[in-house]
Amino acid sequence: MSLQASTYSNPFFEPFDVCALDERADGGVRYIRMSPRGIAIQRQVNGVKMHVMVPIHGYEGVVLTCDEQRLCRIALVHQDEDLTIELYQAAESPAVLAIWRSWADFFAKPALYHEPPVTRGEPSNITWAPPRRRGLSLDERRPRFLKRRRCGHLDRVGSRRF
After folding, report:
1. pTM exceeding the 0.85 threshold for the entire prediction
2. I want to staple 85 with a disulfide (CB 3.0 to 4.6 A). Which of 44, 76, 122, 156 is the partner?
């Protein structure tokens, strides 16, 4: 028996269903079925029932984010934000790291930490790059290797003999 097959037979890794808030869905709720193999999302938008199944390898990992108000969030992150699933949210505590690792083990995905962007100073202190040169238009520019050559004159064309 392979290691992957034994992981799925573990009773702690059985699929389970949760409800999550969804602003665009009818009733504001979507239903999520999570398993180590993938995620199934069911919701209804404007009377149209949707059922999306995403394999677990489509997700990047389990991400822990802590903001300045000491609020920690754990999420299973997908490239498409609509498919990202928030797994846990609470005030910072020692148990957050254990919960983060257990979710990473459940999905067999890497445990990633995302640092929120730090704001340094006022926006007025930001220095901007100087604007590009706005000399000639693109069709009037000469290629780089032709800039070293002088332009020819039509009145001298017939004066030389070979």
Report:
1. no
2. 76
